[in-house]
Write a structure and sequence with these properties.
By secondary structure, the chain is of the alpha/beta class. The protein is built from 24 helices and 26 strands. Keywords: Iron, Iron-sulfur, Metal-binding, Methyltransferase, S-adenosyl-L-methionine, Transferase.
Length: 699
C-alpha cells in the first residue's frame, strides 16, 4: 500500500509568549520529513472553510495548556463542521490535565488522538500510522485514543526522549520571531529575549502544578552550547532566558554550566529560574553565575508559612527561602520571587506572614492567584470538597487567572476560592494585604532623581533618573502610567518603579491630593481603567480605603460587571444617593469626565462635590495632546488620534477667546454654525458645552 503523502495542518493557539514548545514540535516534524502547514493564530485569523477546501490534509493538530481549552474546543468544532472525517490530534499539557472523557466528548471537544508527554517520541509514529492507513495505534507511545470496537479510551505508556543522544533544536525559522522577541520579559521594553532549555521536567510534586514525572532530565552541556552558538549566529537578541521549571538541581551542575558558558567566544547576558532547594547552593554559586553573565534569577516563594508549604507539598521551608535569597543578595545578583495568594488552607494570618517576610527581607517579588487547575492535586481536592458542582461548566468557563489587578478579568465572582478565607472576605483581604506589598515594592525599588523631557513632534516623553540599586542611569519612554510605571535598570536588570510625583512640576499637586483625599469622608473614584486599578494596587496617598464608596463607570459597557475588583461599579445616577464629598478622576480617556459630572449635578439642581485630578491642571492638556500625538505617530488609531488632537487644539483656542476676546452672543452663534459645518452637529454640541463651561469658569 502506497504511503499517504498529504500534509499535516498544525495550528498554534493565540497565546502571546514565545512558542518554544511549538518550535520543538515543528522541528521534530522536519527531522522526520513530515510535510505540514503551520498557522499561528496569534498573528492571523484563518478561514478554515477556504483552507480545508483548497487543501486535502492528512490530519489536523493543535494543543496547549488548559487556558487554551475554549480555543481548542471551538477550533475542533469548526474543523468538524467543514470536514467531519479529518483526524483531530491534540498535544501539550491539556491532554494529561483534562479528564479523557471530556477530550473525546463531541460536545466538549471531540478529539481522535491525544499526545501525552513529549511529542518528539509520539507524533511522528502516529503520523506514520495514519499515512500507512493503519487503524492499529497500540504501539504508538504516549497516545490517547478510543478503541474502535469497544469505544474504550486507551492510554499508551509514554516514551521519554533521550536527551543525551539527540540534540533537537527548536525550528524558530517557522516562527515569526520578530513578533515574539519582546514576549519573554515585557517590562524590559526593547530588550530582545530568546528562550532556551537546560533540561526537561521538575523534581517538584507541588499540589498547584500540572503533574510532572517528578524528575529533572538535563541536556548535555555541549548540546546547550551548540544551540546558543546557533542562536548567536542566526538572530540579533540581547538576553538568553533559560525557561525550564528549574535551571539545575545541584550547585555542581550550575558551576559546570558557568565554566562552559564562559568558554564561548560570543556571549550574551542570561537569566534563569530556580528552586530554593538547589543542593548545596550558596553565595559562591551566585557569584559564579554572575561572573558567567547571569544578570537575573529567581525562584518560587509561594508562601512563607511552613504549614502552607507542607500542604502544597512544595518540599521547601521558610528557612530555605530566606537563605537562598540572602545568598543571592550578598552576591549582588537580582533575584526575583513569586508567591501565591489563596493557597489551600491559607488564612489571612498566613498571607500576612508571607508578605511580612517579603518586605522584611526586601525581596523584589511578584504575586499570582492560586488556580484550581484541572489535573492538579488542588483540583482533585476541590472536587472532593464539593467546591466544583459541574465539571463541564468549570471547563467551559475556565481561564488561567491573569492576576488580581487584570483589567480584562470581568468575572472575579467565578474565581474558585480554595483558601480558608471566606468567600465574602476573600477579595477585601487579598487587596488589602497585597496593597502593603506593592506599596513596599514601589517605594523600595525605584528610579531616583526623576526628570522628563517632552518631544512634541513624536509625541513622546523621555524619563531619566538613577537606579536605586546600583546608581546607573536609567532612561525610558513614559507609558503614561502615572501611578505604576515599571521599567528596569539596563546595568543590574532590577525591575524599578517610576514615581512621577517626585517631579518638581507634580510634587505640590501631590501634597494637595494627599491632604484632600485623606480628609474625604465619602470618596468616589471616577474611571475603571489602569489608573483606577493602580489606586487599589498602591497606597500612594495614605487613603482610608473604607471610605471609597465605589468606582464611577464613565462609559457604560455592554458587559458591565457589578464590581471593579472587589468594589462597586457605579453609574452616574448613583452619585445622588451616595452623596460623595469628593470625586477623584483617575481615568479620563476623552478628557470630559469633569464636564460630564458637573453637568449631571447641574441637571439635578445641586452643586457638584469637589473634583480632583491625578494630574495638575496646568499639565493635563499638554499631556493629553502628547499622548494623542504618540498614538498618531506609532500607528495606533491614526484617525481617532488625529481627531482628538484637532479637537483639543480647537477647545484650547475657544477657551483663549473666551478669556481675551470677550465674544458677543451673536458671534457665538456664528461660531457654532461654522463649527457645525466643519465638524458636524454632535461634535459641535459637545465642543460648545466645553467652551461655555470654561468661559463661565474663567471670566
Amino acid at each position: 500500500m502506497q504511503k499517504d503523502s498529504r500534509k499535516l495542518l498544525i495550528v498554534k493557539p493565540p497565546y502571546k509568549h514565545s512558542p518554544l514548545g511549538m518550535a520543538y514540535v515543528l522541528s521534530c516534524l522536519e527531522r522526520n520529513n513530515i510535510p505540514f502547514d503551520f498557522i499561528d493564530t496569534t498573528l492571523t485569523n484563518p478561514d478554515y472553510s477556504k483552507l480545508l477546501k483548497k487543501n486535502d490534509y492528512l490530519a489536523f493538530a493543535t494543543g496547549g495548556l488548559i487556558s487554551n481549552f475554549n480555543f481548542i474546543s471551538q477550533t475542533i468544532h469548526t474543523i468538524r463542521s467543514i470536514k467531519p472525517g479529518l483526524p483531530i490530534i491534540i498535544g501539550g499539557n491539556i491532554t494529561k490535565d483534562v479528564n479523557p472523557r471530556f477530550l473525546f466528548d463531541s460536545e466538549m471537544m471531540g478529539i481522535d488522538f491525544g499526545i501525552i508527554g513529549e511529542a518528539e517520541t509520539s507524533l511522528p509514529c502516529l503520523i506514520d500510522e495514519l499515512s500507512n492507513g493503519s487503524d492499529d495505534f497500540k504501539e504508538v507511545p504516549g497516545l490517547l485514543f478510543k478503541d474502535r470496537s469497544s469505544s474504550e479510551v486507551i492510554k499508551n505508556h509514554p516514551k521519554r526522549l533521550d536527551l543525551q543522544d539527540i540534540n533537537i533544536l527548536p525550528a524558530w525559522h517557522h516562527i515569526n520571531i520578530n513578533y515574539y522577541k519582546y514576549a519573554e520579559a515585557s517590562y524590559m521594553h526593547n530588550q530582545v529575549v530568546l528562550p532556551v532549555l537546560t533540561g526537561r521536567g521538575c523534581v517538584g510534586v507541588c499540589t498547584f502544578c500540572s503533574p510532572t514525572i517528578g524528575a529533572f532530565r538535563k541536556r548535555p552541556l555541549e548540546h546547550i552550547m551548540e544551540e546558543i552558538e546557533f542562536l548567536l549566529s542566526k538572530y540579533n537578541f540581547d538576553i538568553l532566558n533559560f525557561v525550564n521549571e528549574m535551571f539545575y538541581q545541584t550547585k555542581e551542575d550550575i558551576l559546570r554550566f558557568c565554566e562552559e558558558y564562559k568558554r564561548l567566544k560570543t556571549k550574551k547576558p542570561w537569566m534563569c529560574g530556580m528552586r530554593v532547594d538547589v543542593k548545596n547552593i550558596d553565595v559562591d554559586t551566585f557569584v559564579a553565575m554572575k561572573e558567567a553573565g547571569c544578570v537575573l534569577t529567581g525562584a518560587g516563594i509561594e508562601s512563607s508559612s511552613n504549614k502552607i508549604l507542607k500542604i502544597m507539598k512544595k518540599q521547601t521551608t521558610k528557612e530555605e527561602i530566606i537563605k537562598f535569597y540572602r545568598a543571592a543578595k550578598e552576591a549582588k545578583i537580582p533575584c526575583l520571587g513569586t508567591f501565591m495568594v489563596g493557597n489551600e488552607g491559607e488564612t489571612k494570618e498566613d498571607l500576612k506572614e508571607t508578605i511580612d517576610m517579603v518586605i522584611n527581607e526586601e525581596m523584589n517579588a511578584d504575586v499570582s492567584l492560586v488556580d484550581a487547575y484541572p489535573g492538579t492535586q488542588i483540583y482533585k481536592s476541590a472536587l472532593k470538597r464539593g467546591l466544583i458542582n459541574d465539571e463541564k461548566d468549570y471547563y467551559k468557563n475556565i481561564h488561567l487567572t491573569p492576576g488580581p489587578y487584570d483589567l480584562l478579568w470581568r468575572n472575579r465572582e467565578r474565581y474558585l476560592n480554595i483558601s480558608a478565607i471566606s468567600n465574602d472576605r476573600f477579595w477585601s483581604v487579598v487587596f488589602s494585604e497585597l496593597r502593603c506589598f506593592y506599596t513596599f515594592l514601589f517605594n523600595r525599588f525605584k528610579v531616583l532623581d526623576v526628570k522628563y523631557k517632552r518631544n512634541w513632534l513624536l509625541g513622546t516623553i523621555s524619563v531619566n533618573g538613577i537606579c536605586s540599586e546600583c546608581g546607573s542611569t536609567v532612561k525610558v519612554l513614559s507609558d503614561y502610567n502615572l501611578l505604576g510605571q515599571l521599567t528596569y535598570c539596563p546595568k543590574c536588570y532590577t525591575p524599578l518603579h517610576i514615581n512621577y510625583y517626585k517631579l518638581e512640576d507634580f510634587s505640590r499637586h501631590y501634597d494637595m491630593l494627599c491632604e484632600e483625599l485623606r480628609s474625604a469622608e465619602k470618596l468616589v473614584i471616577a474611571g475603571t481603567q489602569l489608573q483606577a486599578m493602580n489606586i487599589l494596587r498602591y497606597d500612594h496617598f495614605g487613603l482610608n480605603y473604607e471610605r471609597i464608596k465605589g468606582f464611577l463607570e464613565l462609559e457604560r459597557k455592554k458587559d458591565s460587571s457589578p464590581l471593579f475588583a472587589h468594589m462597586p461599579i457605579l453609574q452616574i445616577e448613583k452619585l445622588l444617593s451616595i452623596a460623595p464629598d469628593k470625586i477623584l478622576i483617575a481615568d479620563d480617556p476623552t478628557g470630559d469626565a469633569e464636564l460630564m459630572i458637573k453637568m449631571f449635578y447641574s441637571k439635578n439642581g445641586t452643586n457638584a462635590p469637589k473634583i480632583l485630578h491625578l494630574v495638575p491642571d496646568n499639565k493635563r492638556f499638554s499631556l493629553k495632546i502628547t499622548r494623542y500625538v504618540s498614538k498618531f505617530t506609532t500607528g495606533k488609531g491614526h484617525r481617532g488620534a488625529f481627531d482628538r488632537i484637532i479637537w483639543g487644539l480647537v477647545i484650547k483656542l475657544l477657551r483663549f477667546g473666551a478669556l481675551f476676546l470677550k465674544i458677543e452672543p451673536t458671534l457665538k452663534q456664528i461660531s457654532k454654525r461654522v463649527l457645525r459645518r466643519l465638524f458636524g452637529a454632535t461634535f459641535t454640541k459637545e465642543l460648545y458645552l466645553k467652551y461655555i463651561l470654561w468661559k463661565q469658569k474663567s471670566l
